[in-house]
TrEMBL record:
It comes from the Eukaryota. Residues 203-212 have a biased composition (Acidic residues). Residues 190-202 have a biased composition (Basic and acidic residues). Residues 89-184 form the Something about silencing protein domain. This is Something about silencing protein 4 domain-containing protein. Residues 190-231 are annotated as: Disordered. It holds the Pfam family SAS4.
Amino acid sequence: MAEKEKRRLRSQENSRATSKLFDFDYVNGLLFKNEPLYIDRAKFTNRKHQPYRYYKDLCRLPEKLAISKPTKVTKKEVVLPRRQRTKRDPLSDDVYLPFHRKMKRDEKSMTGSDKNRIANEVDNFKMQLMLLQQNTWARHLPKITYINDKSNPAELQWKRSATFAELQRLVQKYENWDQRNEQCMADIKEFESRKDSNKADSEPVEEDDSDEAIMANQYLQQEREEERLSKFGPSSRLVLHNGYDLVFGPFIHPRIEPSVS
């Protein structure tokens, strides 16, 4: 009778797919391992196979042909008449400003949460850099980078150097982004400070920015309903004489309702 296969726990299995550690086993050796770059010129020793080919006349650009008759180009400036607004715009900027301010607040909140998440990751990178500089770095390295053989000092040494360089690159990338982001925010504040407070684009602080004021505009809705009634007419009711009526209109779906009479 064959022996039963011994069961293994999932924690004892080595899984690289679910690991969040650095893995330098399948990286480009020219970038991380400083391997030499060779150029094989053996196949170019024969004269029939040259590394470069010259096509003589085929590589020359065509000569410019002389134009016998010059083309006369005339430019006519046509000024269109300026349109004069005789009616009040029902969709002015004042209608969308409260919703725009709400979207800006939501965007600022989401941006702040993303910045906090990135800052936490960078703090972890800095902590890992400090651990790699300690005397007990060999004990902390397997928690950061995937190690095949922990008893191999050569593998530990070069993976420590590769991990240290990669962490430094990520931290410098974040610091560079943080500086550019601060400069961009300063430019935005300077631009907004130059705006005229009397214009519609300004954002007064004392104005009501509640969700009810943003999503509901009863005055505009009532005005549109009056325009629809005057242009297309009201809804109609067809009596079916069986206890039900058919209600239909230009802007409603036909439906059957109990008779009102």
